[in-house]
């Protein structure tokens, strides 16, 4: 089981979702938030910290709090969210090629994926067990693909409001 | 003679009917032409009192005096009009209406000098968001499986050879589309092809079955060939 957490700003609306899939990619749980539209006053008061606050402290925190399953790994495509929970790992595709898991710096790793690599960033050093799980998942399924589904779902949520 | 008698009685009747008196009513109103506010005094000047006697308007000047050095003013009749004003031969002692009209105007000015602002405090910055379950949403059940760029030639050729041994049609209509790994065929509700990638609509419940497949096109129809490990 693996979780995917994503928070986006779509046409001025801030919305988030969390999708839990099994190792075949079959969805087990999906939760999403109300799209939030900050008022002009809120934009002024929060200034440049608005998006970080909204995305991490409000949207991601609410989603993690409401999650019914407990996946050991939650991947995100949003750098601000790795502070929310030690299970949350930032993932991105890399052009580098690696044969095995490699630690680039503290909390940053390259994991082999489809002949290239994915870059994993964590707020703290990952255990060998977690790294093995990431490697295993990357071999079993297209580890980036569920983000596409999340993106489509969140766009759909925003389009209806 | 008769004419004189008629005149006499007419005159007498008029006398005895009583003198036709006209009730005189006074309506007064005050108009403040200007005022000034000092540090501790309020001065009023250029006031006029209009007096209406029956339907006739007269405007005798009335002198209204300063209110004195007061920081807080409560306007009373006596504060404003201390003198009587005369109108021709008639002395008007009662100017209540006048004073009332003046008071109303004046008090309004005083209140506006000491405004009290009340403000409602609004909570303007808090955020709340609700979380909804969306397990049934179509978008999260639509899975894309990309065509593999690197293929295991031996496995693919073996699967193709096996398939073609049973294929009796002309190979002119045979087209190889792609090789796909880990297709959850036990959960497929619907399958389509988009830019040579498989788009699979997943069923909520299904069998735990996952295979690698070859996708070929035969006479314009897609055909999936499972690849054994």
Helices and strands in order, then pairings?
The complex is a heterodimer of chains A (161) and B (229).
Chain A: E1 2-10, E2 13-21, E3 27-33, H1 40-46, H2 50-66, E4 74-76, E5 88-94, E6 102-105, E7 108-113, E8 116-121, H3 128-140, H4 145-159
Parallel strand pairs in A: 1-4, 4-5
Antiparallel strand pairs in A: 1-2, 2-3, 5-8, 6-7, 7-8
Chain B: H1 2-17, E1 26-31, E2 34-37, E3 42-45, E4 48-53, E5 56-58, H2 77-80, E6 85-87, E7 90-92, H3 96-113, E8 131-133, H4 138-141, E9 142-145, H5 153-165, E10 174-183, E11 188-194, E12 197-202, E13 211-218, E14 221-227
Antiparallel strand pairs in B: 1-4, 2-3, 4-5, 6-7, 9-12, 10-13, 11-12, 13-14
Characterize the main sheet of chain B: 3 strands, antiparallel
Secondary structure tally, helices of chain A: 4
Helix-strand pattern of chain A: EEEHHEEEEEHH
Q: What is the CA–CA distance across the termini of chain A?
A: 31 Å
Class inferred from helices and paired strands of chain B: alpha+beta
Element order, helices and strands of chain B? HEEEEEHEEHEHEHEEEEE
Segments of chain A where pLDDT lies below 50 for 5+ residues? none
State the helix count of chain B.
Answer: 5
* Terminal-residue CA separation of chain B: 156 Å
As residue ranges, the low-confidence spans of chain B are 15-119
Helix and strand content put the structural class of chain A at alpha+beta
Radius of gyration of chain B, in angstroms, nearest whole number: 54 Å
Strand order of the largest sheet of chain A: 3-2-1-4-5-8-7-6
State the assembly state of the protein chains. heterodimer
Helix content of chain A: 25-40%
Largest sheet of chain A: 8 strands, mixed
Count of strand segments of chain B: 14
What is the helical fraction of chain B, as a range of percent?
A: 10-25%
Strand order of the largest sheet of chain B: 1-4-5
């Amino acid at each position: 089981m693996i979780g995917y957490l994503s928070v986006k700003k779509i046409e001025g609306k801030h919305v988030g979702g969390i999708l839990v899939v099994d190792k075949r990619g079959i969805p087990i749980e999906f939760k999403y938030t109300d799209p939030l539209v900050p008022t002009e006053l809120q934009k002024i008061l929060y200034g440049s910290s608005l998006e970080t606050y909204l995305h991490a402290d409000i949207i991601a925190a609410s989603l993690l709090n409401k999650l019914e399953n407990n996946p050991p790994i939650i991947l995100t495509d949003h750098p601000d969210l790795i502070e929310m929970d030690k299970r949350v790992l930032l993932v991105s595709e890399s052009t580098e090629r690696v044969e095995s898991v490699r630690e680039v710096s503290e909390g940053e790793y390259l994991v082999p994926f489809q002949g290239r690599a994915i870059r994993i960033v964590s707020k703290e050093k990952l255990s060998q067990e977690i790294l093995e799980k990431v490697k295993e998942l990357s071999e079993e399924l297209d580890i980036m693909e569920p983000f596409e589904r999340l993106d489509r779902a969140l766009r759909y949520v925003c389009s209806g409001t | 003679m008769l004419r004189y008698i008629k005149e006499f009685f007419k005159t007498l009747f008029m006398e005895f009917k009583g003198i036709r008196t006209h009730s005189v009513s006074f309506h007064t109103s005050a108009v403040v032409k200007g005022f000034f506010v000092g540090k501790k005094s309020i001065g009023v000047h250029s006031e006029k009192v209009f007096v209406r006697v029956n339907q006739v308007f007269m405007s005798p000047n009335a002198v209204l005096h300063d209110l004195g050095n007061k920081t807080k003013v409560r306007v009373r009749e006596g504060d404003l009009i201390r003198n009587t004003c005369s109108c021709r031969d008639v002395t008007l002692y009662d100017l209540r209406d006048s004073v009332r009209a003046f008071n109303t105007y004046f008090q309004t000015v005083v209140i506006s000098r000491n405004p009290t602002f009340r403000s409602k405090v609004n909570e303007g910055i808090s955020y709340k968001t609700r979380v909804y379950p969306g397990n049934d949403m179509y978008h999260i059940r639509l899975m894309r499986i990309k065509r593999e760029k690197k293929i295991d030639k031996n496995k693919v050729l073996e699967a193709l050879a096996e398939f073609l041994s049973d294929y009796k049609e002309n190979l002119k209509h045979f087209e190889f589309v792609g090789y796909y790994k880990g297709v959850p065929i036990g959960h497929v509700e619907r399958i389509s092809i988009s830019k040579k990638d498989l788009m699979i609509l997943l069923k909520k419940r299904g069998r735990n079955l996952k295979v690698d497949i070859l996708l070929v096109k035969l006479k314009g129809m897609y055909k999936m060939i499972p690849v054994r490990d």
